TrEMBL record, chain A:
Entry keyword annotation includes Oxidoreductase: no
Keywords carried by this UniProt record: Membrane, Transmembrane, Transmembrane helix
Organismal lineage: Bacteria, Pseudomonadati, Pseudomonadota, Betaproteobacteria, Burkholderiales
Organism of this sequence: Rhodoferax sediminis
UniProt gene name: tcuB
Protein name: Tricarballylate utilization 4Fe-4S protein TcuB
SUPFAM superfamilies with a match to the protein in the record: 4Fe-4S ferredoxins, Respiratory nitrate reductase 1 gamma chain
Sequence intervals crossing the membrane: 125-146, 166-187, 250-271, 283-305, 325-342, 348-368
InterPro entries the record matches: Citrate_utilization_prot_B, NarG-like_sf
Automatic annotation (TrEMBL), chain B:
Gene: tcuA
The protein's name in its UniProt record: FAD-dependent tricarballylate dehydrogenase TcuA
Gene3D superfamilies in alphabetical order: FAD/NAD(P)-binding domain (3.50.50.60), Succinate dehydrogenase/fumarate reductase flavoprotein, catalytic domain (3.90.700.10)
Keywords, ordered alphabetically: FAD, Flavoprotein, Oxidoreductase
Domain FAD-dependent oxidoreductase 2 FAD-binding: 3-430
Organism lineage string: Bacteria, Pseudomonadati, Pseudomonadota, Betaproteobacteria, Burkholderiales
Length: 399, 467
């Protein structure tokens, strides 16, 4: 405590003296700084991903640089297996692990509202509680609406249980909040890693457009899980595999198709006055079914890879968060598909309540769980795409 | 009994094992180190010097045989076997596709390395990624690998290989054998013996750091020489670089080098300069600084720069000692203050104005100073000042076994029918002294592949003879 006060005094004294305040690094951040210093003098991993070329534009690693680089890292593991300084070497370089530890701190630090940031620290528990609560909510609502969970066949008519407007309102509010919270979080991150003075210089429209196009394609292709050489990233050992990238794609596009299904159904409902249940060959059902299948294959695959992952990759303490998120996505697709299969039976109300419960749980935890990685990483990639287009101030002659 | 026994687990050994296996032999690799330290010095490498007559995948322009040979001739001062050198050079132009087939990736030229993209192909992820790829490929092809198995001696029947003995006393027989167990740079006693005692009564090698593996103790090399194998090279010849004095004793690898030498001055323990820091581009002359520092009292040197140099050289792994005045820097580095300040002031006064350009051999030179600084000489006058302490770092030793173009070990001038050698253990045939980046891997790859092929053929011959 005394030390902290001394540090604070020192910092404000520095600020008063006209020096820029040097933000004090956390232990996790300092560790990334230490490792980046080693990597910057070595640079053998330059070809694997964007982290290393971004690193070479710097000689020192401040807090903002560390947050930026940590979120640029895709935890592919390639640089760990290639590292001549990996443990048992005394330099103990393990970039994916150091980056992962900082990443979760950044999510928590930039989270909005700030107090909820701590949910990241116990994410497994958060997920379980959110899911349980949302499930109970929908089960109780079902009972209240129909007096029973098994109202007998309703011919797939969901709205016989929940009026459409009520669902739209509930999910609209929660989803809106999730978007807002994530948006504020990532905006805070962006402000710190990209001071206006830096990005300002690149505001030339053509540059900005190029950078945006690059980021969107990199995100959609998951470029940095290709290992830099197209053979993929590492999972269980020093062998490369494209399966992590593929299962991510199944998950991502499966999710997007389900999202599209819901959006189309909403348009049908309000614009065309076409109401659910939709026939099996209708657009919303086709989108939802294919998305659901993708969202089964992807998460099952990711879970399988996660169980086999080299424990040296990433941060073991975050595994409950990773696996919890994967499990939730899997639950959503499984319950959604089950609902499709049994929508004409007496079990429909119960299945619907469960499905809506897990979807609600996902929406509730979006800004405070693994989902954030995609958003923060995309922001870091955008910063990288802009930065790459700026001249490098360093002139390292030799080597 | 296995057909081909390969001793070592670095680049040369793995190239030999893969080739022997591809030729149909059963292969056992025995590596002294535990699995996590496998790969010897090869795990610290970055690139391969390649001949090419036109732009090829990751290589730009052309680097023809003759130019490569002239470069090698220059660095070795003629201490090289032209036949074996040209064989290595030619092999370097055709080995990349084979390497790729075994999982090695080359990196497209990136930021700092553009100007070497003509002569050298860079491994993506460096040598450890290469070694991993070779081990994966070897295991997939059915090559057996045993770690933690140092070999101490070779049992011979005249000039014919019979078996080896490990430190644990185990005897391993094979029809033929490839020795690829590296140099002797991590054998402190041998280094001491080779470097001896200097006129100041110091044992210089006691202050050397080893840039690579701790497992290259040269036991096998010593044993072979004692057993009558023909040797080549001088035990004091080694590739030596001036590296950060705080580097670990072993495996400091690439990141401990100090690249600011040509931007400032280097003084010894007495605060005196001793060599032209601006003789040539740093990559061209960095290999002479290890020996230069080794000749100074206490085998120590200090690279001194000022603020103007920051951002113009590869960032060092450890932070430098900083000070706001030269006198303060001297105190912090433990240098005699007066002598040091005078050296720097004399140097500053001798710097003639010119147009500084650290990317070219510029016209900033000293006049009337001994030793002169012939390029990039700018006064050291802008605080903060930085100092980096230097020690000699041994990369690898050159003393090795004599070979012919079939990589055969020789006894009294006669090649053994079934004992072969590759890599650092015979690099001295091509590289009698000096060094130019990427040649170590070129020699190991060329002779590793030859040795593997020859060993497989020799094993088949043994089979026919006994069948
Ligand atoms: C820091 C550094 C950077 C370098 N960079 C480059 C570069 O970029 N390009 C280049 O061409 N060269 C480079 N070199 C040189 C290069 O490392 C060597 O020329 C090359 O690796 C030699 O390969 P090798 O297989 O002969 O030896 P090594 O790779 O050293 O392998 C020797 C193996 O033998 C094992 N061994 C030792 N003794 C025994 C025993 N008694 N029994 C069983 N096994 C044993 C060791 O454990 C080791 O695995 C570099 C060297 C260093 C140290
Ligand atoms: S991860 Fe290791 S090998 Fe790769 S750049 Fe960093 S220090 Fe070098
Ligand atoms: S783990 Fe992969 S993405 Fe992260 S820094 Fe290393 S190579 Fe780059």
């Amino acid at each position: 405590m005394q030390q902290l006060e001394a540090l604070t005094r020192e910092a404000s004294a520095l600020a008063g003296g006209g020096y820029p305040v040097i933000p004090i690094l956390s232990a996790n951040e300092a560790e990334v700084g230490r490792q980046m210093q080693i990597c910057n003098a070595c640079r053998y991993c330059e070809g694997f991903c964007a982290v290393f070329p971004a690193m070479t534009r710097r000689l020192e690693f401040g807090k903002a640089d560390i947050h930026y680089l940590a979120n640029l890292c895709h935890s592919c593991g390639a640089c760990l297996h290639a590292c001549q300084y990996a443990p048992p070497h005394e330099f103990a370089v393990n970039v994916p692990q150091a980056m992962a530890r900082v990443r979760i701190d950044t999510y928590a630090e930039y989270a909005w509202p700030g107090a909820l940031g701590s949910l990241y620290k116990r994410n497994g528990l958060t997920l379980v509680l959110a899911t349980a609560l949302a499930l109970v909510l929908f089960l109780v609502l079902t009972m209240a609406a129909r007096g029973t969970l098994f109202p007998g066949p309703l011919a797939g008519n969901f709205y016989a249980i929940f009026p459409h407007n009520m669902l739209a309102l509930m999910f609209g509010v929660v989803f809106g909040f999730a978007v807002l919270a994530l948006g504020i979080g990532v905006a805070r991150f962006w402000r710190e890693v990209s001071p206006a003075s830096e990005t300002g210089r690149s505001q030339e429209p053509s540059l900005r457009r190029d950078a945006t196009v690059e980021v969107v394609t990199d995100v959609l292709r998951l470029k940095y899980l290709d290992g830099g050489h197209g053979e993929g990233c590492n999972n269980a050992d020093d062998r490369f595999t494209l399966w992590r990238r593929r299962f991510h794609h199944f998950t991502f596009y499966g999710f997007m198709l389900c999202f599209a299904a819901t959006s189309v159904a909403t348009l049908y409902h309000y614009l065309l006055d076409l109401h659910a249940p939709y026939p099996l060959t209708s657009l919303p059902v086709i989108l939802g079914t294919s998305g659901g299948i993708g969202l089964v294959i992807g998460p099952v695959g990711l879970l399988w890879l996660n169980l086999r992952r080299d424990p040296a990759h990433g941060d073991l303490a975050q595994r409950p968060m990773d696996r919890g998120f994967i499990a939730l996505l899997l639950l959503i697709s499984l319950t959604g598909l089950a609902l499709l299969v049994w929508r004409d039976t007496g079990a429909m109300a119960l299945l619907l309540a469960i499905h809506l419960g897990v979807v609600m749980a996902l929406f509730l935890t979006l800004p405070y769980g693994k989902f954030a990685h995609g958003i923060f990483r995309s922001a870091a990639l955008l910063k990288n795409a802009i930065e790459k287009r700026q001249p490098n101030r360093l002139q390292l002659g030799s080597e | 009994m296995v057909d081909v026994l390969v001793i070592g687990g670095g680049n040369a050994a793995l190239c030999a094992a893969l080739m022997a296996r591809e030729a149909g032999a059963s292969v056992l690799v025995v590596e002294a180190s535990p699995r996590e330290w496998r790969g010897g010095n090869s795990q610290h490498t970055r690139n391969l010097r390649c001949m090419h007559d036109a732009p090829q995948d990751v290589l730009i322009d052309a680097y023809p045989e003759e130019e490569y040979w002239q470069d090698l001739l220059k660095v070795t001062g003629g201490i090289t076997d032209e036949h074996l050198a040209r064989l290595t050079i030619r092999a370097s132009s055709t080995c990349r596709d084979w390497m790729r087939r075994h999982g090695v990736h080359f990196q497209p030229p990136l930021s700092g390395a553009l100007h070497v993209a003509r002569t050298n192909a860079f491994f993506m992820g460096g040598g450890k990624a290469l070694v991993n790829a070779y081990f994966r490929s070897a295991e997939k092809l059915g090559v057996q690998v045993r770690y933690d198995t140092p070999v101490v001696s070779v049992e011979l029947d005249g000039d014919r290989f019979v078996a080896v003995r490990t430190t644990k006393g185990e005897r391993i027989e094979a029809k033929s054998c490839v020795l690829a167990a590296g140099g002797f740079e991590s054998n402190r006693e041998w280094l001491r013996e080779a470097w001896g005692q200097n006129e100041r009564g110091e044992w210089p090698s006691d202050n050397f750091l080893i840039r690579g593996t701790r497992f290259n103790e040269g036991m096998l090399l010593k044993h072979m020489i004692d057993a009558g194998a023909d040797s080549i090279g001088d035990p004091t010849q080694a590739h030596m670089v001036a590296i950060d004095a705080r580097a670990p004793l072993y495996d400091g690898g690439i990141c401990t080098r100090i690249d600011c030498v040509s931007l400032g001055v280097v003084v010894n323990r007495e605060g005196q300069r001793f060599y032209d820091e601006g003789e040539d581009f740093w990559p061209k002359c960095y290999a002479i600084w290890g020996r230069l520092v080794a000749q100074q009292p206490g085998q120590i040197g200090y690279s001194i720069i000022d603020q103007k140099a920051i951002g113009r050289f590869m960032p060092p792994v450890f932070p430098g000692t900083t000070a706001n005045t030269l006198a303060e820097l001297a105190r912090k580095l433990g240098l005699p203050e007066q002598a040091f300040v005078k050296t720097v002031e004399d140097y500053n006064a001798a710097c003639r104005p010119g147009s500084f350009d650290h990317t070219a051999l510029d016209d900033c030179a000293t006049s009337g100073l001994a030793p002169a600084k012939t390029h990039w000489a700018r006064p050291i006058n802008t605080a903060p000042f930085y100092g980096y302490t230097l020690k000699p770092g041994v990369t690898f030793t050159y003393l090795g076994l004599k070979v012919n173009d079939r990589a055969a070990v020789h006894f009294g001038g006669r090649p053994s029918p079934n004992l072969f050698v590759a890599g650092e253990m015979m690099a001295g045939n091509v590289l009698g002294k000096g060094y130019t980046a990427g040649v170590g891997m070129a020699i190991g790859t060329a002779f590793g592949r030859i040795a593997g092929t020859q060993a497989a053929a020799a094993a088949r011959k043994v089979e026919h003879a006994t069948a």
